[in-house]
Design a protein that fits this description.
The structure is a single chain. By secondary structure, the protein is mostly helical. Helices cover 72% and strands 0% of the residues. Helix 5 packs antiparallel against helix 6 (115-137) and helix 6 (115-137) crosses helix 7 (142-155). Bound molecules: protoporphyrin IX containing FE (HEM). The site of protoporphyrin IX containing FE has 26 residues, from helix 3, helix 5, helix 6 and helix 9.
């Protein structure tokens, strides 16, 4: 009997085993609240795709940032759609990640053996908020400029290292071209890399430990 392409591939790569482990694993009877993590994952993919598309036209310098964002919005075919999906996606991601966290908290799903899943989750939450903070400056309009001026000035209140933190965030005393390129670099390189590594570990643990059953009242 000749072997099919599926078996051929399985013997050489283990592709079927990977597929079955990821998508055909047994899960308990759950409800809609359990889809909040996957909904967040969907938005993460949206942010990556639309974010990459935005970088094709966006230029992170004080001379060009505002004009290139304006160009994307008003002249580029479907540019308004891509930018809108990225902007609204950012808001949706913060809302969904918080709701997902509340679901986990409500069900007590952070308990043994899922403590590390919870800790990687906390890191993902911080990364999500940092995405929002750094992304907000990028259009370099009045709102972005002053919101970041206020946001970074709060760092000054940290005891001992406040002044250092403020200068590190701004790249000097005031907001400048250095701040913009610093925020851009963090937004498109450092945070996505941190997100992908942490998320990979988070999802590995979800598959490894399985998901919790919704708590039920004992008969
Ligand atoms: C980018 C952000 C995140 C993504 C994409 C994500 C994704 C997921 C997915 C797909 C699941 C499977 C079950 C479900 O959907 O409920 C899950 C489970 C879990 N997540 Fe997240 N998550 C994120 C952030 C967080 C945060 C902020 C926390 C908590 C601080 C957290 C803690 C957990 C825990 C403890 C589980 C296991 C739940 C169980 O076994 O019932 N996650 N996550």
């Amino acid at each position: 009997m000749t072997e099919g392409p599926g078996t051929w591939l399985e013997e050489r790569t283990g592709a079927r085993t990977v597929w079955e482990t990821l998508f055909l694993r047994k899960i308990p009877k759950v409800n809609w609240l359990y889809t909040l993590g996957s909904a967040t994952l969907f938005v993460v993919v949206n942010q990556i795709v639309t974010g990459i598309l935005l970088t094709i036209y966006y230029v992170p310098s004080p001379q060009d940032a505002y004009d290139t964002v304006n160009f994307i919005d008003s002249s580029l075919p479907a540019g308004w759609l891509i930018r809108g999906m990225h902007r609204w996606g950012a808001t949706a991601m913060v809302a969904l990640v918080l709701l997902h966290m509340l679901r986990v908290l409500y069900h007590g799903a952070y308990k043994y053996p899922r403590e590390i899943t919870w800790i990687t989750g906390v890191i993902l939450l911080l990364i999500t908020l940092a995405f929002g903070f750094t992304g907000y400056l990028l259009p370099w309009d009045q709102k972005a400029f002053w919101a970041t001026t206020v946001g970074t000035s709060i760092m000054d209140a940290v005891p001992g290292i406040g002044d250092w933190l403020l200068r590190a965030a701004r790249g000097g005393e005031e907001l400048s071209a250095v701040t913009l390129s610093r925020f851009f670099g963090i937004h498109v390189w450092i945070l996505p890399a941190a997100l992908l590594v942490t998320l990979g570990f988070h999802l590995y643990l979800v598959v490894r430990n399985g998901i919790t059953e919704p708590p039920r009242r004992k008969d």
